[in-house]
Specification:
single chain, 318 residues, alpha+beta, ten-stranded mixed β-sheet, two-stranded antiparallel ribbon, 18 strands
């Protein structure tokens, strides 16, 4: 396994990509730049849910319930991976749960976890935890365009109370359009500790793309993956900051007026310059493009790929 970087772009129409529960569930906003923010936790949730629901993978950080139907806490979840009723030492218990979680749970192999445990050691229970640093790390996502939040009010589907004629009212906050960029790094050194494999990385990339397409809930429906790049290196090196090496070109007076991917061109000029500078360190560029994406200075995605190939860099579709 080699070091690699990930650049992922997706967009959303008339929906809320990541509400802030401490602010009326409004879409997250950088007030200074008026750009939309999406946490790395949201993207990881998308990936986890896809791998659980569509690939039948076991996920550690997911909702589980006890026999009374109550939501388990982290320690109760961890208890499922302790295989002995009693341990000779706390170290033995820690090594046992680490091995079991890594073997079973793809999300821990990818993203790591902090796992609280309280095993029985000889005659008493002892508290401890196991911390695994995830080899896959994402920066917070940020929109390439400025956004505005729309406040929508409406009526609910039920009466406001028993015997009442008036229906309840509802309100929500949406973004007319947001083109969001995520940047991530796959660290081959940390992968040794969690046991992450090349197959796991393949599942990660599938979860990013297809997981986003399968966000079919009322607040998330309308999200479309547009571009996914994985830059794989020959050595312990990476360019860094890929999300700030991509921008958009548009003919409108204000990027807040953008409502569709067809109104923008993705500008990868800065990234292409970096690829040229570091071409000797790059093993391969993997890609996946949505058919509606247009690239600045290129009449087609094939022409863009020809430019990368012209640098002596191998490319392969995901």
């Amino acid at each position: 396994m080699n070091r690699s970087e990930i650049l992922f772009l997706y967009d959303i129409n008339d929906a809320n990509p990541n509400g802030d529960p401490l602010d009326s569930n409004k879409p997250r906003l950088d007030e200074e730049t008026e750009t939309n923010l999406v946490t790395d936790v949201r993207l990881k949730r998308t990936i986890r849910d896809y791998l659980r629901d569509y690939k039948d993978e076991k996920i550690f950080i997911t909702d589980t319930f006890d026999n009374e139907g109550k939501l388990n806490d982290a320690k109760q979840r961890a208890d499922k991976f302790l295989t002995k009723e009693k341990y000779e030492s706390l170290t033995e218990a820690r090594e046992d749960i680490k091995a079991n979680v890594i073997q079973d749970c793809v999300d821990v192999r990818l993203f790591g976890a902090t796992i609280p445990i309280e095993p029985k050691v000889k005659t008493k229970k002892e508290k401890s935890s196991v911390t695994l640093t995830g080899p896959v790390q994402f920066r917070m996502g940020r929109s390439l365009n400025q956004v505005e939040i729309n406040h929508i009010k409406g009526t609910g589907g039920f009466a406001s109370g028993a015997g009442k004629d008036q229906k309840t009212f509802r309100e929500e906050y949406i973004l007319p359009y947001s083109l969001i960029g995520f940047y991530g790094v796959v660290n081959e050194i940390a992968a040794k500790d969690t046991g992450m494999s090349d197959n796991d990385v393949g599942l990660l990339l599938e979860g990013i793309w297809d997981g986003t397409k399968n966000l079919i809930t009322r607040s998330k429906f309308g999200q479309v993956p547009r571009l996914l790049l994985q830059i794989e290196y020959k050595e312990n090196y990476f360019i860094g900051d890929l999300n700030n090496k991509v921008s958009i070109n548009y003919d409108l007076d204000d990027s807040k007026l953008i409502r569709n991917i067809n109104q923008v061109e993705i500008n990868l000029n800065k990234l292409l310059s970096n690829l040229e500078e570091e071409k000797d360190k790059i093993s391969k560029v993997y890609y996946k493009f949505d058919s509606d994406v247009k690239f600045f200075n290129y009449e087609s995605s094939d022409k863009l790929l020809d430019t990368i190939k012209g640098l002596g860099i191998s490319v392969e579709e995901l």
